[in-house]
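Hi support team,

I've been running sequence recovery on a batch of backbones for a student project. Most finish fine, but this one hangs at about 90% for roughly twenty minutes before it completes. I'm not sure whether the input is malformed or the queue is just slow. I've pasted the structure tokens below so you can try to reproduce it. Let me know if you need the job ID as well.

Thanks,
M.K.
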């Protein structure tokens, strides 16, 4: 879950966006569409947006990444490596 003020035309958002852009080391307020694309590119399959303040641009986004998106071959290889490690540990005992 991520909660943030997003870029919009509201006075509070424009004010904060201007301050963040003018401050060294800070980034402008994110745009909702931009963050949605970044979440999908990062592998998050479900996003739900919730407006936290009426008539405001303060939102929460809920995103989830499910293990089913991992290729089966990768999962099998991880299981083999884990099994090999436990066998090695038993032999060394």
């Amino acid at each position: 879950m991520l909660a943030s003020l997003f870029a919009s035309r509201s006075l509070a958002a424009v004010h904060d966006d201007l301050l963040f852009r003018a401050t060294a080391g800070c980034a402008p307020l994110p745009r909702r569409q931009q963050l949605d694309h970044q979440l999908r590119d990062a592998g998050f399959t479900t996003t739900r947006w919730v407006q936290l303040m009426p008539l405001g641009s303060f939102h929460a986004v809920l995103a989830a990444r499910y293990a089913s998106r991992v290729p089966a071959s990768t999962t099998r290889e991880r299981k083999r490596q884990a099994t090999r490690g436990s066998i090695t540990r038993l032999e060394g005992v």
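--
Follow-up from support: It reproduced on our side and the slowdown came from queue contention, not your input. Helices lie at 11-22, 32-41, 72-92. No action needed from you.
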